[in-house]
Amino acid sequence: MAETKFDERHLPDASDYAAVVERFIPGRQAIFAIVEASLLEILTEGPAKILVVGAGGGEEILRLGAENPLWSFVGVDTSEPMVEMARRRIAGTPLAARATVHSTAIDKLEDNGFDAATCILTAHFVPDDGSKLGFLSAIHGRLKPGAPLTIVDGVEGNGEAQTELLRRIWTRHAIRNGVAKDAAETNARNFKNVAVVSVEREEELLRAAGFTDIVPIFRGLAIKGWLAFA
Ligand SMILES: C[S@@+](CC[C@H](N)C(=O)[O-])C[C@H]1O[C@@H](n2cnc3c(N)ncnc32)[C@H](O)[C@@H]1O
């Protein structure tokens, strides 16, 4: 399994989390705006129970919950420091009453019947050795039939030269957002260690997990997002 370094020593303070991460990820504001608009378009206006896979940090719960008081959230994440950060950021907000974050893998979550799921910048940590298919299948199995999943992941470029160019643009983009050069270069280099797959392979895995009607909804450098239905 690819190592995911979400070690407390390297995490920003809970109060800085959103601002710090936004400097690195191209189009991060747009990702959340598009995910929210997608769910608003598909979900009925009543209450909805939303599964957040990779909920560490708490960002999607805070953003999606802010203006949708009838949405409740169950988050899962395998990193205890990231779960703790999510809990700290959610505590004391109106979301505290309708969000729970579990420190667990998705296949161990004893809950199902979700109206929707999100999986943002998380599935790309799961290696394509059967684990990524198992991970996506575990999400599928917890959704109501026809329920939407919004998934956003790093993807491979079309060949090594394109991947390398995207990496250099990624670094420059972060520097222009105020990230120190070393930190930007390290972040771009770390992307090599993430278990990204090609766009075609990600879509194949989504279909193999049972998802249908896969619609691309976002692309920013090496980050791509889809809407898919259980
Ligand atoms: C880059 S962070 C993104 C967090 C959040 N979705 C966001 O966009 O702010 C990736 C998260 O995925 C979690 N993660 C990695 N592998 C996971 C897995 N197999 N199951 C659940 N969470 C996982 C990490 O612990 C981390 O919190």
Structural commentary:
The chain has helices spanning 17-24, 28-42, 59-66, 80-90, 131-140, 160-176, 181-190, 199-208, and strands at residues 48-53, 71-77, 99-103, 116-120, 148-154, 212-220, 223-229. 39% of the residues are buried. Helix 6 (160-176) runs antiparallel to helix 7. It has a single domain, classed as Vaccinia Virus protein VP39 (Rossmann fold, 3-Layer(aba) Sandwich), CATH 3.40.50.150. The chain has eight helices and seven strands. The model has no long low-confidence stretch (mean pLDDT 93). It is an alpha/beta fold and 230 residues long. Residues 4, 6, 21, 53-54, 56-57, 59-60, 76-79, 82, 105-106, 120-122, 125-126, 135 line the site of S-adenosylmethionine.
What is the total tally of β strands? 7
Question: In the CATH hierarchy, what is the superfamily?
Answer: Vaccinia Virus protein VP39
Ligand names: S-adenosylmethionine
Distance between the termini: 26 Å
Main sheet attributes: strand count, strand direction, barrel closure: 7 strands, mixed
Percent of sequence in beta strands = 15-25%
The total tally of domains equals: 1
Based on Cα principal axes, name the global outline. globular
Question: What is the string of SSEs from the N terminus onward?
Answer: HHEHEHEEHEHHHEE
